[in-house]
Design goal:
Elements: H1 2-33, H2 49-56, H3 59-62, H4 73-91, H5 103-148, H6 157-179, H7 188-200, H8 202-206, H9 211-220, H10 233-243
Amino acid sequence: LFCLSSALVAPAAWADSYSNFQQASGQLEALMSKATPQSGLPRLGDPGVAQLFAHIADGPRLFRAPVAALQDVNQSVALCERSTNLGKSYYQFGLTRPLPLSGAELQQARREQVTQNLADYGDEMAALFAFGMHCHAHLIGLMEKEFSSQPLQEVSSAERMRARAFSKGSSTMFVNVVQFVQVPFWNVAQKKRMLEAAAQHAAANANLMAPPLRERLLTSLADADKDLDPALAPALAAIRQALSVTTCTGLCQYY
């Protein structure tokens, strides 16, 4: 009886996860709009903020939701952009504040601000960037479905350009997240969250990329094992395995 009631409740709960995402995103955006240099941005340890992130960053749950909007490419793109913009807001916090500096001094001050943001808001950024991996994987599935429904030779030049632009944009995000394994600002837990999301969707992302680009990313990871925390090894291995595939099918053909 319990299993039956759970089965009946699940679709409604999944649908709620979509509206919860939209509502929680709006609430987080409102909190961020009130941030000052003194107060800082909302953090996971603040009252109520962890609950907002639970609704915003749970990609696996959200993308099971039987919601028409999630079967629409444009509405799904808008959802991904909304979460990406939240992550960027953490990354860029304080960068627009006018400073009595110019040239190299201004650039240095901006770099120091970004480093401080990563120290202050690394957990929040990691959650949002990991969600971005799930969101883009959902988009890849929608685009693959759309483009697999027609023979390659019948795809118009405009649609080819759209597929190519999508592949380039999504693969750029994947490359950036994968290369976080080698940068010092993220701690192991943050890297693990992002890399595991990237590894979960590594095959789909690699299949967007022309084989030479896969090889280039694989080569860039050659030294990633140096001082690698063992907790990151399984995800990195899965990503490398996906990048080692040399065949080009699906959206890769439009790259």
